[in-house]
Amino acid sequence: MTFALSCHLLVHLAFARPVATDADTNAPERRLTSTLVELWRASASPAALDDFVSRYPRFAGDTAQIVVELVPGSDADTIAHDLAVTPEASFDGRLQLRVPASRLAAIADHPGVRHVREPFRALAKEEVEGEGYDATMPVDWHEDAQVTGAGVHVGVLDVGFSGADALIGGELPAEVDSDLSRGAPESSSHGSAVAEVIADFAPDARFTLVSFSTDVEFGEGLQALLDADVDVVNASIGFDNVWAADGSSAPSRYADAIVDAGVIFVSAAGNERRRYRVGPLARVEDSTYIEIDGHYAIAMEAPNGRAHVSFRWSEPFGEAATDLDLVVFDASSQRECGRSENPQDGDDNPYEEVDVSGCEDGVYVAVYADVSVEPAGLTGYLYAYAGLDEAEQTDIESLSLPADCFTCLGVGAYLLPDESIAGYSSHGPTNDGRTKPDFVAPTDVSTSIYSDTPFEGTSAATPHLAGLAALWVQATGLDSEPAAFAAWAAEEAKDVGDPGMD
User: pLDDT of 215-253, one tens digit each?
Assistant: First the structure.
């Protein structure tokens, strides 16, 4: 969708002055994201709460799901006891809770709490005996070497496994273990399709399926797979634009840690190439607006009136001192649809997100800041879940996390039969300049679970490498040498596109 921005609109934006809420920096709501502050305040009035939920339908119900980030050194069990809560999940200094909205400020007021936010949610990286095995394997290990994954333990970490039970003993091996205690495992058959592709390669491997949804549950799920003593982990999922893609995020550190423990970890690069605008930040002259590589009224789609956009910038997480904010306007009426005004004054995250309903189908988004704020020298990363207008897309640095990891393997997607890179497949480099993804593999393949619908996206590409890894582990007997597998795969891979690593 293309939006023609009129001169009148540009003038309106250039001199609009959104005003941030002036709040006591010691108030407990200072540690809540701006959306949670609005929810907490709305909870005092049934009418206000109804209006809030109409704009943010994900908060419908009696409780809100939140993540409580603890002050370093704080004890999670002690804080949970103090707050009289039972965590849904707890990992690495974060508590995942469901609480009434009226309790949000009291939770934020605990001295052991650094920040309270909504969970960051992983997304399945899909666009919607397989072709991928034949395209990937120059030698049929099943026939020539009787290598079928026997004795190899494969873990699949995913957001849903609906229909997997019906595949066991057929499209999936007879030995399948499951830990589906997290997330909503019946909400999607995505993980079942992923496991099916791996089983095309390694039909005699042992499988463990682990479900999750949020960033806290991701850590718990990886720990569960490590405890199960897996040899290979497939994660055809990704977190998009909620941390820097430089290997420093929690999911990326966990992925590298599991590799350090001797496990081959493969991760989807993402389908985000058309959803990013990346570039240097600068103030629009004589205004409160901030441009990203020369653009500040950035057109994006809002299907069914839902605008979902996030913005981060290149300050360290937990140390952001440049206070930037985000606003979404309807394209035709110029009505403000939503805004995010999280504080940044030295110990905060460089992150803003608007996820709101009730907009027009076409909107534009802008970054703004007080006139005293100087963004020069920073790089901005704007991400729109439904995609940006074609003129706004920059393609580069569009990786999903944890594919930005240092030692795990990120996988992009190519199309059969011409081996062209899929137009949606995320591009590197990482934010710290490393070449990623590490490999590309086939997409748009057939599975039993999806029947006549092709399995597309880097979600479908990633399990081709995981399946190959399972065969390699059996063939070599090297069950704790992920670096050796990575080196072997790089040596044996076909070089498509420009010569050399790209």
Answer: 999 999 999 999 999 999 999 999 999 999 999 999 999
State the Cα–Cα distance between residues 6 and 22, nearest whole angstrom: 33
Q: How far apart are CA 358 and CA 337, in angstroms?
A: 7
What CA–CA distance (Å, rounded) separates 146 from 486?
22
Helix (H) or strand (E) holding 266: strand 264-268
Structural element, H or E, at residue 64: strand 64-70
Number of separate helices (H) and strands (E) present in the chain: 12, 23
CA atoms of 248 and 402, how far apart (whole Å): 10
* E strand or H helix at 55: helix 46-55
pLDDT digit string (tens) for 22-32? Answer: 445 557 788 99
Residue 225 φ then ψ, to 5°: -70, -40
- Of the candidates 453, 374, 344, 358, the one whose C-alpha atom is nearest the C-alpha of residue 115 is 344
Q: Under a CB-based contact definition with an 8 Å cutoff, are residues 469 and 438 in contact?
A: no
Half-sphere exposure of 199 (CA within 13 A, CB side): 28
| Statement: residue 331 has pLDDT above 50 | yes
Average pLDDT over residues 199-217: 97
What's the Cα-to-Cα distance from 292 to each of 78, 195, 398, rounded to whole Å? 43, 40, 15
Residue 277 pLDDT greater than 90, yes or no: yes
Q: Which two tokens stand for residue 214?
A: 């949020």
DSSP class of 316: P
Over pLDDT 70: what percentage of the chain?
91
CA dist 405 and 35 (Å) reads: 30
Tell me the sheet residues that pair with 388: 300
The per-residue pLDDT for 14 is: 37
- Given this model, what pLDDT does residue 140 score? 65
**Separation between Cα atoms, residue 344 and residue 325, nearest integer Å:** 9
Bridge-based pairing state of the strands 232-235 and 153-158 = parallel
Which of 39, 49, 151 lies closest to 103, judged by CA? 39
Amino acid (one-letter) located at 23: A
Q: How far apart are CA 201 and CA 218, in angstroms?
A: 26
The pTM for the full model equals: 0.91
Whether 98 contacts 64, CB under 8 Å: yes
pLDDT, tens digit (0-9, with 9 covering 90-100), for 255-268: 999 999 999 999 99
Q: Which amino acid is at 3?
A: F
Between CA 307 and CA 325 the distance in angstroms is 16
Cα–Cα distances (Å) from 258 to 29, 141, 221, 231, 404, in that order, read 36, 27, 12, 10, 15
Is-contact 453 124, C-beta < 8 A? Answer: no
- Beta-bridged to residue 307, according to DSSP, are 356
